[in-house]
Description:
InterPro entries: RNaseH-like_sf, Zinc_finger_BED. This protein is an all-alpha fold. The chain contains eight helices and no strands.
Amino acid sequence: xxxxxxxxxxxxxxxxxxxILGEKTCWSSYSAMLVRLIQQxxxxxxxxxxxxxxxxYQLTLNDWMLIPKVNRLLKPFADATLDxxxxxxxxxxxxxxxxxxxxxxxxxxxFGINNTIKKEMIVQLKRYFRGLNPRVHFVDGETSEVHxxxxxxxxxxKKNGFMDKAKAEEAKGKLVSVASNIFKRSLAExxxxxxxxxxxxxxxxxx
Length: 207
């Protein structure tokens, strides 16, 4: 690290930051690692020429070409993670967040190994968030009643928050059924009272 610090000082505009290592248990750490590598590229490449640096750990030209491309694929996940960590993020954001990741991934044009990585990312997204994973605790968010109804009731999203329009209609049917059952139970218990609305014309109101 001392070698890297020396080369950071040699270049004006290269921040004296430390490198970041990806952690499987730390969300977005791999994206942060790649961003830091891109930021420190000039200093790192000079530091790698030092005789005390093990050549086994040097990044090749192919690695440097791959890093920004892989980071571009990881960015939708990193952005969604930041959004999910906001103080006021709620359960109704889950389905739209997943939809946004799918949309942004599909919008990225990649070739060769990067296209392979992109396809595998989409496969894994479908496994964990579209109900294609046999493990019980991974379910399709759009058919999960609590997630689907929360999204449907959120005025920011409603049916537009769903990827699958058929599942949005299914969620709408569930919502109508739940509301109907609550209404019937309230009537039976005598806890629901209707307040008549006076039928007088209000200025600007269309009937």
